[in-house]
Design brief:
Number of domains: 1
Strand order of the largest sheet: 1-2-3
Oligomer: single chain
Strand content: 15-25%
Shape: elongated
Helix content: 25-40%
Structural class: alpha/beta
Distance between the termini: 12 Å
Number of strands: 6
Number of helices: 5
């Protein structure tokens, strides 16, 4: 199973962030412009939350708030679960499933170096399964293997 480091090398490590005091309207505009489903809330260089489409959908209307008058910190998820670049994709899937989260900031030396989404993990799982199916098919057919055949794809 690939590590988070491997996944980041293929998907990139661009992370979009926002100040928790920013208005939700501004956060939504940034998310739309960058075509992302979540932003990392960073205050004084530290991760203090995650603001996602899910937070918006579940916490704005139900609380009678408006996006032009409400800061991100009022509805963001403050209990942030992070991983390191050395975690495996399986570790991340387990965390996302157990903790019911869809985004994991990736930390290295107290700095955000990437963000994994549940979509990234689904892509990784599919790539791993395709690799395994290909290997089993080749084994059944009796194809010869080369040294590069033993490693799963890094996307």
């Amino acid at each position: 199973m690939n590590s988070v480091r491997d996944i980041l090398q293929s998907k990139g490590n661009e992370v979009w962030s926002i100040d928790p005091d920013s208005l939700i309207f501004d956060a939504l505009n940034l998310m739309a412009a960058k075509n992302v489903g979540a932003l990392v809330a960073i205050e004084k260089g530290k991760v203090v939350g995650i603001f996602s489409e899910r937070d918006y959908a579940r916490k704005m209307i139900l609380k009678g708030k408006t996006s032009k008058n409400t800061p991100v910190k009022d509805i963001m998820t403050s209990d942030v679960i992070t991983v390191s670049i050395d975690h495996t994709a399986q570790d991340c899937m387990n965390l996302m499933t157990d903790k019911r989260v869809r985004h994991l900031p990736i930390m290295e030396k107290d700095k955000v170096v990437g963000l994994l989404s549940i979509g990234d993990m689904v892509k990784e799982t599919i790539a791993q399964q395709e690799f395994l199916i290909n290997q089993l098919t080749r084994y059944i057919r009796g194809d010869e293997f080369s040294p590069t055949d033993s490693a799963p794809p890094k996307h």
